[in-house]
Amino acid sequence: MEKPARVFISHTHADHISDLVPFLWAIQIDGRQKPLALYGPPGFKKTLSRLLQCTSTSDDFFKFPLTVSDLDFGEAQDNVRTCRTSHTIPTMAFRIEANGKSFCYTADTIYCPAVIELARNTDLLIHEATFLEDQLSIAELTRHSTPRMAGKAAKEASAKRLALFHIPPPNDRREKEFYSDAKLEFGDEVTVGEDMVMFDL
Ligand SMILES: [Zn+2]
Ligand SMILES: [Zn+2]
After folding, report:
1. CATH number for the domain whose boundaries are 72-201
2. Are 74 and 46 in contact (CB under 8 A)?
3. Which region, left, alpha or beta, applies to residue 160 given φ > 0 means left and ψ of -120 to 50 means alpha?
4. Residues with Cβ–ion distance below 5 A, ligand 2
5. Contact assessment for residue 94 and residue 105, using Cβ atoms and an 8 Å cutoff
6. Which ligand has an atom closest to residue 129 CA?
7. Are 154 and 125 in contact (CB under 8 A)?
8. H or E element in which residue 25 lies
9. pLDDT digits (tens, 9 = 90+) for 136-182
10. Domain spans of the chain, in order of start
11. In whole angstroms, what is the distance from residue 182 CA to residue 149 CA?
12. pLDDT tens across 79-125, in order?
C-alpha cells in the first residue's frame, strides 16, 4: 500500500484540534483515496473519537484508509521525533528531519528545557509566542511563551532561524514587539509565521 501522508497533532486544545474534523470531511468530500495517518499525544485517539461522535460522523464515513495513533512522549515516528512540552495539558513538540535538514515545532509551551534539547542545532525553530513581557503572569498561568522565552530557547538550542507563531488577538496589533523582544535574545534571524508561509531550509 502507498505510504500514508501524515498529520501530527500536538494537543487537544480547541485552537489546535477544532479544524481537524472539518478538514477530514473536506478531503473525503473531495474524493480522497490516498491513505492518511494521524498522530497525536497520549489521549489523542480518544478525543478524536469523541469529536467524531459529537459531529455525527459515523465510523464508515471516511472511505480512504485512515489510521489514528497515540504516540508516547519521546517516541519517534520514522523521521519525526517528539518530546513533552511544558503546557497545561499533555502536549507534544515535533522535530522533523529530511534530506539533512530539520525543523522543530514546539507546539504550545512555556520555556522548556526538553524542547530546547529536541531543537538542538535545528535549521528552523518554530516556537510559540503568545504573550509579551508585561503579560508574564498570564503567560505563566496558561503555560505559554513570550517572544523573549522563544528567543532564549532558540539561542540555547543553537537553532539557525526562529519563526514565532501563536500570536493571538489583540496581541497581533503588537507584532513589532514580538520581533524586537525575540531579537533581543536571538539576533536577527527571526520571523513571524503566517498561514501557508513556506520556508526554504
Ligand atoms: Zn494549548
Ligand atoms: Zn494554542
Report:
1. 3.60.15.10
2. no
3. alpha
4. 15, 108
5. yes
6. 2
7. yes
8. helix 20-29
9. 999 999 999 999 999 999 999 999 999 999 999 999 999 999 999 99
10. 1-70, 72-201
11. 8
12. 999 999 999 999 999 999 999 999 999 999 999 999 999 999 999 99
pLDDT of 22-72, one tens digit each?
999 999 999 999 999 999 999 999 999 999 999 999 989 999 999 999 999
Q: What's the burial of 97, exposed, middle or buried (CB within 10 Å: 0-12/13-18/19+)? A: middle
The C-alpha cell of 127 is what?
516556537
Answer for the pair 111, 117: CB distance below 8 angstroms, yes or no. Answer: no
Distance 13 CA to ligand 2 centre (A): 6
User: What's phi and psi for 162, nearest 5 deg?
Assistant: -130, 130
What number of residues does the chain have? 201
CA–CA distances in Å: residue 28 to residues 25, 38, 95, 129, 162: 5, 15, 28, 34, 35
Neighbours of ion ligand 1 (CB under 5 A): 13, 108
Residue with cell 483515496: 33
Distance 157 CA to ligand 1 centre (A): 22
Residue 88 Cα to ligand 1 middle (Å): 7
Residue that is written with C-alpha cell 526562529 in the block: 162
